[in-house]
Amino acid sequence: MIGLLAIIPALIGFKQEAEPKPVAPAAAAVPVKQGPSFPEIPIKPWTTQPLVSPDTAELLVGSMAFVNLTDGQVLIDKNGADRVFPASTTKLMTALLAYEKAVAEKELDQNVVIVKKSTLDIPWDSHIVHLAVGDRLTVRQALYATLLESGNDAANSLAEYVSGSTNEFVELMNARAQVLGLTGTQFRNAHGYSDPNHYTTALDMARITYAFGTYPELVEIAGTYEYEAKFKDAAGNQKRRWWYHLGSAVNERSIHYSKLVTATKTGYTDESGYTMVFLMERDGKQYALVTMQAKSGQTFPTMRSVEKIAFNLTTE
């Protein structure tokens, strides 16, 4: 009887419940790391409109580019696509990224640049502005220290302000380089100290100069000869510093002064030779003159030659 009762459901078509199958847990969502975003700076394709042969004797430096940035015309190209070491002209990119963040966050004149022990982790023979652990500067002050006195410590302070670490900042520099269309540039630090894998080209540096020149405040900073900074140290005591531009093209008392130059950045290492960027303005148009691989005494004569070739300017 018990056996018959057991088979009745099957005989009359009752459906028996199947044992529940274990449900596999849903796969955890993996966040996708977004790439950095940057302010859009359109750069029109550049055309070549040579003013002179690159073999012109008056163009003394090893590599250079002279570009009409407004019209997108490469006017002089002497080995402009050759790989070169930029030295401290690197700091134009560092300043560009720091300025863009500070403006976006409304922090340009806030005391948000704090010097840490890691900030001062730079080669012993670096050019510095003698910042100390605990110093607290505004972004604007750190930009002046970076662009005028070319302090590697100041450049690192901006890098850490932007990205938290210099390594992460270098990644940002290279990402910005790609966005700007740089094809021969790779960064390994924020200040330009020589590294075999830290390089650029004169034409790429001209494109960085173009982006830099779209911000009037950056042009003003890099075109200032002297600047007074007052900031607090770790103990809250006030420090006062005067910083002077190493680029004599913006020093009216210098024989190298040029009324066309609105901003400039210097550089030098044994490996790079003398490097220099000049942002110029003439008749409402912007120009970039980038000189690389220069020996002592070659940069400013080359600048004067370009002024004569392009603008028919001569100095007494």
Automatic annotation (TrEMBL):
Transmembrane regions: none
GO biological processes: cell wall organization; peptidoglycan biosynthetic process; proteolysis; regulation of cell shape
Binding-site positions, substrate: 265
PANTHER family: D-ALANYL-D-ALANINE CARBOXYPEPTIDASE, TRAFFICKING PROTEIN PARTICLE COMPLEX SUBUNIT 12
Alphabetically ordered keywords of this record: Cell shape, Cell wall biogenesis/degradation, Hydrolase, Peptidoglycan synthesis, Signal
Residue ranges occupied by any Peptidase S11 D-alanyl-D-alanine carboxypeptidase A N-terminal domain in the UniProt entry: 58-295
Name this protein carries in UniProt: Peptidase S11 D-alanyl-D-alanine carboxypeptidase A N-terminal domain-containing protein
